[in-house]
Fold this sequence. Notes:
By secondary structure, this protein is mainly alpha-helical. The chain folds into 2 domains: about 60 residues, Orthogonal Bundle (Arc Repressor Mutant, subunit A); about 140 residues, Up-down Bundle (Four Helix Bundle (Hemerythrin (Met), subunit A)). The protein has 10 helices and 3 strands; from the N terminus they run αβααββααααααα. Strand 2 and strand 3 form a beta hairpin. Helix 4 packs across helix 7, helix 4 packs antiparallel against helix 10 and helix 6 runs antiparallel to helix 7. The radius of gyration is 19 Å and the shape is globular.
Amino acid sequence: MIPMPDITLEPLAAPAPQTTTDQVFETLYSAVVSLKLPPGAKVSEAEIAKQLDVSRQPVRDAFFRLSKLGFLLIRPQRATLVSRISERAVLNAAFVRTAIEAECTRLATERRTDEDIARLRANLQRQEQALGVEDAGVFHGLDDAFHRMICTIAGHAHAWDLIQEQKAQMDRVRFLTLSEKRRRDVRAEHGVIVDAIASGDPDEAERLMRTHLADIRRVVSQIRHDKAAFFEEERP
């Protein structure tokens, strides 16, 4: 068991349109995905509440939501732990995400407007600017915004909510791969996807999206080899 890391979580801003529980959840979600709270780490309701200057109830509620995503292992009368990564869960999530997003990409290609393409290209420009930023989380957020935008253009913004639930298990692996080189590769892949959507070629746009999303299946075994302590022991 890894003791709770000495991390600094930003105090919650108030007032805000989100509930306190939502803010705590998003703060902890980001800390888990970015590995500030690494797999196997012990987490404490009391310590989190103190750091965020909130009562323990919203922390308890956020812990429950994180446990439903498979991020926390809550055990009665025992320490709550950040769960280790399941390679099988990552691959299952990648399958579901690809199925949903491939269809959204086709629909986005058929329904896109000039304004939609302009928004996608503006996001690409922000991705370009984020390549040299030390905090990989900046690029990670723009990456998510790019994919969310495609679902919205397709007319199925709710699909991103389904993807978000599924991809939680993928996000830690994705973050581990976000070297500067990988960020540049991702930016380039996003660029050709936008070009295919703009040209009105749904077959090519879907093919490029499938290839882009398949990378997680290619790298997860290598990441598991390199970061074995972060992963569960998979049973046959």
